[in-house]
Amino acid sequence: GNPSPVFWVKDKDTPIDSLPNDLTHESYNGFRRNALKQRDSSATGNCHRDMDVLYQFWSHFLIRNFNTRMYDEFRQLAFEDALERQSNVGIKNLIQYYDEAIASQKVISDEIARDFVDLVKSETTGNERPAFTKLRAAWRNGAFNMKNRKKIDNYLDQNLRTDLER
After folding, report:
1. Does residue 1 carry a pLDDT above 70?
2. Nearest to 120 by CA among 137, 142, 108
3. Does this model's pTM top 0.90?
4. Which end of the chain, N or C, is less packed with Cβ atoms under 10 Å?
5. Three-class secondary structure assignment of the chain
6. In sequence order, what are the beta bridge partners of 16?
7. What's the burial of 152, exposed, middle or buried (CB within 10 Å: 0-12/13-18/19+)?
């Protein structure tokens, strides 16, 4: 059957199973449009709260309901924010998404596997490497979905595979 509905409530860190009575509904499209408008007017280095919530929403929603267009926008904006706006909020949520995706029982696409490995490879050694840290933890975790492990392994070079197994 269909999974039970999940509701996303602003100012909550995770989705909830039932709606509070005092809730005001806002459509995804309306919220997204407002968040992107706020993003455009935010100062460099800042991530507006609504954009933060949108990144969180994407990182959770896409696990259950993958949508290529939404994923591509999530990934593009996260990288733009990191490179052009000096904000790593989107990248942190993208890494969280990858971590949940590879740990889930759903088999990830080749695109997701490649994108995650590319992100890990793009992190410079010596600095903080949050994507590498998540992948390494999953790599060492016996509960890692083996089909996802195989997909990730297809994109690893020998140096990265060695680093993961250290």
Report:
1. no
2. 137
3. no
4. N
5. CCCCCCECCCCCCCCECCCCCCCCCCCHHHHHHHHHHHHHHCCCCCCCHHHHHHHHHHHHHHHHCCCHHHHHHHHHHHHHHHHHCCCCHHHHHHHHHHHHHHHCCCCCCHHHHHHHHHHHHHCCCCCCCHHHHHHHHHHHCCCCCHHHHHHHHCCCCHHHHHHHHC
6. 7
7. buried
